Amino acid sequence: MKKKRAYVYTRVSTSMQIDGYSLDAQEERIKQYAKAYDIEIVDVYKDAGKSGTSIIGRNNFITMLDDIK
């Protein structure tokens, strides 16, 4: 059976979250999940201080989508 692969994307919208642990905590939790289910993480993308209401300005999200293609 072929191993599953995943791209990791983390995002926070406020400067308070940027200064805290949120991006690192998101990434660590995703990596734990991937390890538990034998999923290979291809790459990690992060957008700090970006709203989730639109993809405009979320450059790393757009890069990830392009890489997936």
Would you write up a description of this structure?
It is a single chain. With 69 residues, the protein is α+β, with helices and mostly antiparallel strands. It has one domain (4-67): Resolvase, N-terminal catalytic domain (Rossmann fold), CATH 3.40.50.1390. The protein is 43% helix and 28% strand. The chain is built from three helices and two strands, in the order E-H-H-E-H. It has a two-stranded parallel ribbon. It is flat, with a radius of gyration of 13 Å. The two termini are 22 Å apart.
Q: Summarize this, please?
A:
This protein is an alpha+beta fold and 69 residues long. It is 43% helix and 28% strand. The chain has a single domain (4-67), classed as Resolvase, N-terminal catalytic domain (Rossmann fold).
CATH topology (fold) name: Rossmann fold
Structural class: alpha+beta
Fraction in helix: 40-55%
Order of helices and strands: EHHEH
CATH superfamily: Resolvase, N-terminal catalytic domain
Number of domains: 1
Q: Can you tell me the residue ranges where pLDDT is under 50 for at least 5 consecutive residues?
A: none
Largest sheet strand order: 1-2
